[in-house]
Amino acid sequence: MSALVGVSDPTDRWRSLDPSDMVQLLTPEGERVEHPDFSWQGDAATLRGLLRDMVLARRFDAEGTALQRHGELGLWPPLLGQEAAQAGAAAALRPNDFVFPSYREHGVALAMGVPVSEMLKLWRGTGQGDWNPQTFRFNLYTLVIGSQTLHATGYAMGLQLDGAEGAAVLAFHGDGASSQGDVNEAYVFAASYHAPVVFFCQNNQWAISEPTHRQTRIPLYQRARGFGFPGIRVDGNDVLAVQAVTEWAMARARRGEGPAFIEAFTYRMGAHTTSDDPTKYRLADEDEHWRGRDPIERVKTYLASIDELDQAWLDDLDAQCEDFGADVRRACHGLEVPDLATAFDRVHAEQTHELRAQKEQYVSWAESFA
Ligand SMILES: Cc1ncc(C[n+]2csc(CCOP(=O)(O)OP(=O)(O)O)c2C)c(N)n1
Ligand SMILES: [Mg+2]
Fold first, then answer.
1. What's the confidence (pLDDT) of residue 128?
2. Every domain of the chain and the residues it spans
3. Which atom of ligand 1 is nearest to the CA of 204?
4. Fold of 14-338
5. What value does the mean pLDDT take over residues 286-314?
Protein backbone atom coordinates (compact mmCIF):
# COMPACT_ATOMS: atom_id res chain seq x y z
CA MET A 1 0.00 0.00 0.00
CA SER A 2 1.30 3.42 -0.86
CA ALA A 3 2.36 5.76 1.92
CA LEU A 4 0.43 8.36 -0.01
CA VAL A 5 -2.96 6.86 0.82
CA GLY A 6 -5.26 9.62 1.99
CA VAL A 7 -3.50 12.27 -0.04
CA SER A 8 -5.96 13.71 -2.51
CA ASP A 9 -5.40 14.36 -6.14
CA PRO A 10 -4.37 18.02 -6.37
CA THR A 11 -7.04 18.54 -9.00
CA ASP A 12 -9.72 17.67 -6.40
CA ARG A 13 -11.87 20.73 -6.01
CA TRP A 14 -14.48 21.98 -3.62
CA ARG A 15 -17.08 19.93 -5.50
CA SER A 16 -15.62 16.64 -4.27
CA LEU A 17 -15.83 17.58 -0.61
CA ASP A 18 -17.14 14.85 1.61
CA PRO A 19 -19.77 16.55 3.82
CA SER A 20 -19.43 13.81 6.46
CA ASP A 21 -15.95 15.19 7.00
CA MET A 22 -17.33 18.50 8.20
CA VAL A 23 -19.40 19.45 11.25
CA GLN A 24 -22.76 20.81 10.16
CA LEU A 25 -25.87 21.64 12.19
CA LEU A 26 -27.78 23.70 9.61
CA THR A 27 -27.73 22.63 5.97
CA PRO A 28 -27.56 25.05 3.03
CA GLU A 29 -31.29 24.34 2.57
CA GLY A 30 -31.98 25.60 6.08
CA GLU A 31 -32.62 22.22 7.70
CA ARG A 32 -31.54 21.59 11.27
CA VAL A 33 -29.46 18.40 11.53
CA GLU A 34 -27.85 16.65 14.47
CA HIS A 35 -24.19 15.80 14.92
CA PRO A 36 -22.96 13.07 17.29
CA ASP A 37 -20.33 15.28 18.96
CA PHE A 38 -21.54 18.85 18.65
CA SER A 39 -24.79 20.58 19.45
CA TRP A 40 -26.09 24.12 19.57
CA GLN A 41 -28.25 24.93 22.58
CA GLY A 42 -29.66 28.43 21.98
CA ASP A 43 -33.29 29.34 21.35
CA ALA A 44 -34.88 31.12 18.38
CA ALA A 45 -34.26 34.58 19.90
CA THR A 46 -30.55 33.78 20.22
CA LEU A 47 -30.45 32.61 16.63
CA ARG A 48 -32.18 35.83 15.52
CA GLY A 49 -29.40 37.66 17.36
CA LEU A 50 -26.80 35.81 15.30
CA LEU A 51 -28.77 36.56 12.14
CA ARG A 52 -28.76 40.24 13.07
CA ASP A 53 -24.98 40.15 13.67
CA MET A 54 -24.44 38.59 10.23
CA VAL A 55 -26.76 41.01 8.43
CA LEU A 56 -25.11 44.04 10.07
CA ALA A 57 -21.64 42.67 9.25
CA ARG A 58 -22.71 42.29 5.62
CA ARG A 59 -24.04 45.84 5.64
CA PHE A 60 -20.79 47.19 7.08
CA ASP A 61 -18.95 45.33 4.36
CA ALA A 62 -21.19 46.70 1.60
CA GLU A 63 -20.65 50.23 2.93
CA GLY A 64 -16.87 49.67 3.05
CA THR A 65 -16.85 48.52 -0.57
CA ALA A 66 -19.05 51.45 -1.67
CA LEU A 67 -16.92 53.97 0.24
CA GLN A 68 -13.83 52.66 -1.53
CA ARG A 69 -15.59 52.95 -4.90
CA HIS A 70 -16.45 56.56 -4.03
CA GLY A 71 -12.78 57.27 -3.39
CA GLU A 72 -13.33 57.65 0.37
CA LEU A 73 -11.22 54.62 1.31
CA GLY A 74 -7.95 53.55 -0.27
CA LEU A 75 -8.72 49.85 -0.04
CA TRP A 76 -11.30 47.48 1.42
CA PRO A 77 -11.05 43.70 1.92
CA PRO A 78 -14.63 42.34 1.72
CA LEU A 79 -15.89 39.69 4.11
CA LEU A 80 -18.88 38.82 1.90
CA GLY A 81 -19.72 35.13 2.42
CA GLN A 82 -17.77 34.78 5.65
CA GLU A 83 -20.40 36.26 7.98
CA ALA A 84 -21.29 32.96 9.68
CA ALA A 85 -17.66 32.00 10.29
CA GLN A 86 -17.09 35.33 12.00
CA ALA A 87 -20.37 35.72 13.91
CA GLY A 88 -20.23 32.08 15.06
CA ALA A 89 -16.62 32.36 16.24
CA ALA A 90 -17.29 35.63 18.06
CA ALA A 91 -20.32 34.13 19.80
CA ALA A 92 -18.06 31.49 21.36
CA LEU A 93 -15.87 34.04 23.15
CA ARG A 94 -15.87 34.78 26.87
CA PRO A 95 -14.94 38.12 28.49
CA ASN A 96 -11.32 37.17 29.27
CA ASP A 97 -10.52 35.75 25.83
CA PHE A 98 -8.37 37.66 23.39
CA VAL A 99 -8.61 37.80 19.59
CA PHE A 100 -5.82 38.22 17.03
CA PRO A 101 -7.39 39.02 13.63
CA SER A 102 -5.85 39.22 10.20
CA TYR A 103 -7.49 41.98 8.09
CA ARG A 104 -10.88 40.66 6.99
CA GLU A 105 -12.45 40.10 10.41
CA HIS A 106 -14.80 43.09 10.34
CA GLY A 107 -17.64 40.95 11.70
CA VAL A 108 -15.57 39.87 14.70
CA ALA A 109 -14.38 43.43 15.27
CA LEU A 110 -18.00 44.67 15.37
CA ALA A 111 -18.89 41.92 17.82
CA MET A 112 -15.97 42.94 20.06
CA GLY A 113 -17.19 46.54 20.06
CA VAL A 114 -14.41 48.15 18.01
CA PRO A 115 -15.87 51.47 16.76
CA VAL A 116 -16.37 51.57 13.00
CA SER A 117 -14.52 54.89 12.83
CA GLU A 118 -11.40 53.18 14.22
CA MET A 119 -11.67 50.39 11.67
CA LEU A 120 -12.22 52.77 8.76
CA LYS A 121 -9.18 54.89 9.62
CA LEU A 122 -6.84 52.12 8.60
CA TRP A 123 -8.42 51.81 5.14
CA ARG A 124 -8.73 55.56 4.67
CA GLY A 125 -5.07 55.99 5.50
CA THR A 126 -5.76 58.41 8.33
CA GLY A 127 -4.67 55.97 11.02
CA GLN A 128 -2.31 53.09 11.50
CA GLY A 129 -4.62 50.83 13.44
CA ASP A 130 -5.35 52.98 16.43
CA TRP A 131 -7.74 51.15 18.71
CA ASN A 132 -6.41 49.93 22.02
CA PRO A 133 -6.26 46.12 21.76
CA GLN A 134 -6.66 45.72 25.51
CA THR A 135 -9.87 47.76 25.57
CA PHE A 136 -11.59 45.56 23.03
CA ARG A 137 -9.60 42.35 23.61
CA PHE A 138 -9.09 42.51 19.85
CA ASN A 139 -5.59 43.06 18.53
CA LEU A 140 -4.84 45.39 15.62
CA TYR A 141 -5.41 44.17 12.08
CA THR A 142 -2.31 42.49 10.70
CA LEU A 143 -1.59 42.65 6.99
CA VAL A 144 1.72 40.80 7.07
CA ILE A 145 0.29 37.41 6.29
CA GLY A 146 0.19 35.08 9.26
CA SER A 147 2.43 37.02 11.61
CA GLN A 148 -0.49 37.47 14.03
CA THR A 149 -0.42 33.71 14.70
CA LEU A 150 3.01 34.13 16.32
CA HIS A 151 1.80 37.14 18.30
CA ALA A 152 -1.26 35.15 19.37
CA THR A 153 0.81 32.17 20.45
CA GLY A 154 3.18 34.41 22.37
CA TYR A 155 0.23 36.10 24.04
CA ALA A 156 -1.23 32.71 24.94
CA MET A 157 2.12 31.62 26.41
CA GLY A 158 2.06 34.86 28.41
CA LEU A 159 -1.40 34.02 29.77
CA GLN A 160 0.03 30.68 30.83
CA LEU A 161 3.06 32.25 32.53
CA ASP A 162 0.79 34.73 34.33
CA GLY A 163 -1.33 31.86 35.55
CA ALA A 164 -4.39 33.50 33.97
CA GLU A 165 -7.33 31.21 34.42
CA GLY A 166 -10.32 30.80 32.18
CA ALA A 167 -8.83 32.72 29.26
CA ALA A 168 -7.76 31.62 25.81
CA VAL A 169 -6.68 33.22 22.54
CA LEU A 170 -8.46 32.96 19.20
CA ALA A 171 -6.11 33.52 16.25
CA PHE A 172 -7.66 34.09 12.83
CA HIS A 173 -5.78 33.32 9.65
CA GLY A 174 -6.53 32.32 6.09
CA ASP A 175 -5.98 29.20 4.01
CA GLY A 176 -3.14 30.89 2.19
CA ALA A 177 -1.52 31.95 5.44
CA SER A 178 -1.30 28.28 6.43
CA SER A 179 1.51 27.97 3.85
CA GLN A 180 3.51 30.69 5.57
CA GLY A 181 6.58 29.78 7.64
CA ASP A 182 5.54 32.02 10.54
CA VAL A 183 2.23 30.22 10.85
CA ASN A 184 3.84 26.80 10.93
CA GLU A 185 6.27 28.05 13.59
CA ALA A 186 3.31 29.30 15.61
CA TYR A 187 1.74 25.81 15.41
CA VAL A 188 4.99 24.24 16.67
CA PHE A 189 5.35 26.69 19.56
CA ALA A 190 1.69 26.36 20.50
CA ALA A 191 1.94 22.57 20.55
CA SER A 192 5.30 22.43 22.35
CA TYR A 193 4.18 24.80 25.09
CA HIS A 194 0.61 23.55 25.22
CA ALA A 195 -0.46 27.17 24.80
CA PRO A 196 -4.13 28.16 25.19
CA VAL A 197 -4.58 29.26 21.58
CA VAL A 198 -7.12 28.20 18.98
CA PHE A 199 -6.16 28.69 15.36
CA PHE A 200 -9.25 29.64 13.40
CA CYS A 201 -8.56 29.19 9.71
CA GLN A 202 -11.21 30.69 7.46
CA ASN A 203 -10.66 28.54 4.43
CA ASN A 204 -12.36 30.81 1.93
CA GLN A 205 -10.83 28.72 -0.91
CA TRP A 206 -8.64 31.47 -2.23
CA ALA A 207 -5.46 33.32 -1.34
CA ILE A 208 -5.94 36.19 -3.76
CA SER A 209 -5.81 34.19 -7.04
CA GLU A 210 -4.23 31.04 -5.58
CA PRO A 211 -6.77 28.27 -4.90
CA THR A 212 -6.50 26.18 -1.71
CA HIS A 213 -6.04 22.98 -3.68
CA ARG A 214 -2.66 24.30 -4.78
CA GLN A 215 -1.65 25.06 -1.20
CA THR A 216 -2.23 21.59 0.23
CA ARG A 217 -2.62 17.94 -0.73
CA ILE A 218 -4.74 17.12 2.29
CA PRO A 219 -7.64 18.97 3.92
CA LEU A 220 -6.11 21.74 6.01
CA TYR A 221 -7.60 20.51 9.29
CA GLN A 222 -5.73 17.20 8.92
CA ARG A 223 -2.42 19.02 9.12
CA ALA A 224 -3.02 19.84 12.80
CA ARG A 225 -2.42 16.23 13.80
CA GLY A 226 1.12 16.45 12.48
CA PHE A 227 1.76 19.34 14.84
CA GLY A 228 0.28 17.47 17.77
CA PHE A 229 -3.11 19.03 18.38
CA PRO A 230 -6.63 18.31 17.21
CA GLY A 231 -7.90 19.71 13.94
CA ILE A 232 -11.52 19.86 12.93
CA ARG A 233 -13.41 21.03 9.87
CA VAL A 234 -16.68 22.85 10.25
CA ASP A 235 -19.11 24.18 7.68
CA GLY A 236 -17.99 27.80 7.87
CA ASN A 237 -21.29 28.98 6.38
CA ASP A 238 -23.22 27.37 9.23
CA VAL A 239 -23.24 29.79 12.14
CA LEU A 240 -24.55 27.19 14.59
CA ALA A 241 -21.85 24.65 13.82
CA VAL A 242 -19.12 27.30 13.89
CA GLN A 243 -20.22 28.50 17.33
CA ALA A 244 -20.48 24.93 18.68
CA VAL A 245 -17.05 23.88 17.40
CA THR A 246 -15.35 27.11 18.51
CA GLU A 247 -16.90 26.82 21.97
CA TRP A 248 -15.50 23.31 22.26
CA ALA A 249 -11.99 24.36 21.18
CA MET A 250 -11.90 27.48 23.35
CA ALA A 251 -13.26 25.60 26.39
CA ARG A 252 -10.52 23.00 26.21
CA ALA A 253 -7.86 25.69 25.71
CA ARG A 254 -9.21 27.57 28.75
CA ARG A 255 -9.05 24.34 30.77
CA GLY A 256 -5.36 24.01 29.92
CA GLU A 257 -5.80 21.24 27.36
CA GLY A 258 -3.75 23.02 24.71
CA PRO A 259 -4.23 24.35 21.20
CA ALA A 260 -6.66 23.29 18.51
CA PHE A 261 -7.12 24.06 14.85
CA ILE A 262 -10.48 24.87 13.28
CA GLU A 263 -10.89 24.89 9.52
CA ALA A 264 -14.02 26.89 8.82
CA PHE A 265 -14.84 25.83 5.29
CA THR A 266 -16.34 28.86 3.61
CA TYR A 267 -16.08 30.90 0.45
CA ARG A 268 -14.92 34.40 -0.35
CA MET A 269 -17.91 35.50 -2.43
CA GLY A 270 -16.35 38.82 -3.33
CA ALA A 271 -12.99 40.01 -4.54
CA HIS A 272 -9.84 39.59 -2.45
CA THR A 273 -9.85 43.36 -2.01
CA THR A 274 -11.30 46.25 -3.98
CA SER A 275 -8.04 46.17 -6.00
CA ASP A 276 -8.74 42.65 -7.25
CA ASP A 277 -10.87 41.27 -10.09
CA PRO A 278 -11.70 37.60 -9.43
CA THR A 279 -13.36 37.15 -12.84
CA LYS A 280 -9.80 36.92 -14.17
CA TYR A 281 -9.06 33.68 -12.33
CA ARG A 282 -12.24 31.89 -11.29
CA LEU A 283 -15.28 30.60 -13.07
CA ALA A 284 -18.81 31.90 -12.77
CA ASP A 285 -20.20 28.42 -11.95
CA GLU A 286 -18.11 28.34 -8.79
CA ASP A 287 -19.63 31.63 -7.64
CA GLU A 288 -23.06 30.30 -8.54
CA HIS A 289 -22.51 27.13 -6.47
CA TRP A 290 -21.52 29.13 -3.41
CA ARG A 291 -24.33 31.67 -3.73
CA GLY A 292 -26.59 28.70 -3.05
CA ARG A 293 -24.75 28.15 0.23
CA ASP A 294 -25.23 31.68 1.55
CA PRO A 295 -24.72 31.74 5.33
CA ILE A 296 -27.49 34.28 5.94
CA GLU A 297 -30.18 32.77 3.74
CA ARG A 298 -30.03 29.38 5.43
CA VAL A 299 -30.70 30.92 8.87
CA LYS A 300 -33.64 32.90 7.50
CA THR A 301 -35.04 29.78 5.83
CA TYR A 302 -34.73 27.78 9.03
CA LEU A 303 -36.24 30.44 11.30
CA ALA A 304 -39.14 30.91 8.85
CA SER A 305 -39.70 27.14 8.73
CA ILE A 306 -40.22 27.01 12.50
CA ASP A 307 -42.39 30.15 12.43
CA GLU A 308 -39.83 32.27 14.26
CA LEU A 309 -39.23 35.01 11.71
CA ASP A 310 -41.93 37.54 11.04
CA GLN A 311 -42.03 40.44 8.63
CA ALA A 312 -42.12 43.06 11.39
CA TRP A 313 -38.81 41.76 12.77
CA LEU A 314 -37.24 41.78 9.30
CA ASP A 315 -38.51 45.31 8.63
CA ASP A 316 -37.02 46.45 11.92
CA LEU A 317 -33.70 44.85 10.99
CA ASP A 318 -33.82 46.67 7.64
CA ALA A 319 -34.33 49.95 9.47
CA GLN A 320 -31.40 49.18 11.80
CA CYS A 321 -29.27 48.45 8.74
CA GLU A 322 -30.18 51.76 7.12
CA ASP A 323 -29.28 53.66 10.31
CA PHE A 324 -26.06 51.71 10.70
CA GLY A 325 -25.12 52.32 7.06
CA ALA A 326 -25.64 56.07 7.54
CA ASP A 327 -23.53 55.92 10.73
CA VAL A 328 -20.72 54.18 8.85
CA ARG A 329 -20.71 56.80 6.08
CA ARG A 330 -20.84 59.65 8.60
CA ALA A 331 -17.97 58.12 10.59
CA CYS A 332 -15.87 57.83 7.45
CA HIS A 333 -16.53 61.38 6.26
CA GLY A 334 -15.79 62.69 9.75
CA LEU A 335 -12.29 61.22 9.97
CA GLU A 336 -9.65 63.87 10.36
CA VAL A 337 -6.43 63.92 8.39
CA PRO A 338 -3.67 63.53 10.97
CA ASP A 339 -0.52 65.61 11.11
CA LEU A 340 1.98 63.29 9.42
CA ALA A 341 4.68 64.32 11.89
CA THR A 342 2.81 62.35 14.59
CA ALA A 343 3.65 59.13 12.75
CA PHE A 344 7.17 59.33 14.19
CA ASP A 345 5.80 59.39 17.74
CA ARG A 346 4.04 56.09 17.31
CA VAL A 347 6.88 53.76 16.36
CA HIS A 348 8.20 53.04 19.86
CA ALA A 349 6.92 53.81 23.34
CA GLU A 350 9.96 56.07 23.79
CA GLN A 351 11.50 58.20 21.07
CA THR A 352 14.96 57.23 19.75
CA HIS A 353 17.68 59.60 18.46
CA GLU A 354 17.20 58.34 14.91
CA LEU A 355 13.45 58.83 14.95
CA ARG A 356 13.79 62.31 16.46
CA ALA A 357 16.22 63.24 13.69
CA GLN A 358 13.92 61.80 11.03
CA LYS A 359 10.96 63.68 12.46
CA GLU A 360 12.90 66.98 12.47
CA GLN A 361 13.99 66.38 8.89
CA TYR A 362 10.40 65.66 7.85
CA VAL A 363 9.01 68.72 9.65
CA SER A 364 11.53 71.09 8.06
CA TRP A 365 10.87 69.52 4.64
CA ALA A 366 7.10 69.93 5.08
CA GLU A 367 7.57 73.54 6.26
CA SER A 368 9.64 74.34 3.17
CA PHE A 369 6.35 74.32 1.20
CA ALA A 370 4.75 76.99 3.38
C1 LIG B 1 4.15 38.09 4.32
C2 LIG B 1 3.21 38.47 3.21
N3 LIG B 1 3.33 37.87 2.01
C4 LIG B 1 2.46 38.19 1.02
C5 LIG B 1 1.50 39.14 1.20
C6 LIG B 1 0.54 39.50 0.07
N7 LIG B 1 -0.77 38.94 0.35
C8 LIG B 1 -1.76 39.71 0.85
S9 LIG B 1 -3.18 38.85 1.09
C10 LIG B 1 -2.48 37.42 0.51
C11 LIG B 1 -3.29 36.15 0.46
C12 LIG B 1 -3.78 35.67 1.78
O13 LIG B 1 -4.70 34.62 1.61
P14 LIG B 1 -5.39 33.91 2.82
O15 LIG B 1 -4.41 33.64 3.91
O16 LIG B 1 -6.14 32.76 2.28
O17 LIG B 1 -6.40 35.02 3.41
P18 LIG B 1 -7.66 35.71 2.69
O19 LIG B 1 -7.14 36.95 2.02
O20 LIG B 1 -8.23 34.73 1.75
O21 LIG B 1 -8.60 36.07 3.81
C22 LIG B 1 -1.15 37.64 0.14
C23 LIG B 1 -0.27 36.60 -0.41
C24 LIG B 1 1.43 39.77 2.47
N25 LIG B 1 0.51 40.70 2.75
N26 LIG B 1 2.28 39.39 3.46
MG1 LIG C 1 -8.10 32.63 1.76
1. 86
2. 14-338, 342-370
3. 20
4. Rossmann fold (3.40.50)
5. 96
